[in-house]
What we know:
Layout: H1 3-16, H2 18-27, H3 29-43, H4 45-67, H5 73-84, E1 91-97, E2 103-111, H6 121-131, E3 135-141, H7 151-165, E4 170-178, E5 181-184
Parallel strand pairs: 3-4
Antiparallel strand pairs: 1-2, 1-3, 4-5
Helix pairs in contact: 1-2, 1-4, 3-4, 4-5, 6-7
Amino acid sequence: xxxxxxxxxxxxxxxxxxxxxxxxxxxxxxxxxxxxxxxxxxxxxxxxxxxxxxxxxxxxxxxxxxxxxxxxxxxxxxxxxxxxxxxxxxxxxxxxxxxxxxxxxxxxxxxxxxxxxxxxxxxxxxxxxxxxxxxxxxxxxxxxxxxxxxxxxxxxxxxxxxxxxxxxxxxxxxxxxxxxxxxxxxxxxxx
Length: 191
């Protein structure tokens, strides 16, 4: 096993535990190799492991979630914290689910600046219809590390709930990640 592959496997063990890491690594060995080559070409040696682990973690989340019902908010929050870690700009993402809350897709739909992102309800509705989604979890990060939802976040959530309700898509939660903290609209009773 090469040094890079060994390092990748060790990072996966840290994130998922030995058994899950071995299964994930075996299942995606070709993909991991491709990700590492692409990352090294794009970012140089310093970023390859970070990008590989991020991509493999996203893949593992989607594989695990599609097998089970999305009923563990803590797992979603942990995934989002890892996904948004270290970003110096805002990203607005959506997890699309079927009628039994199985994950259908995860997409980063909008990218913004250090303090804001433009979000277009129409685009989210289009993607929800393409997936034939029954529900979704909205998520975005605050690079400032402050996870509290702003008034703009609250207004956006209401607007998205209204737009998605017109096409019978439920908004299950809107999660804001700020560093190691999170704000869940569902946990606070705002959804």
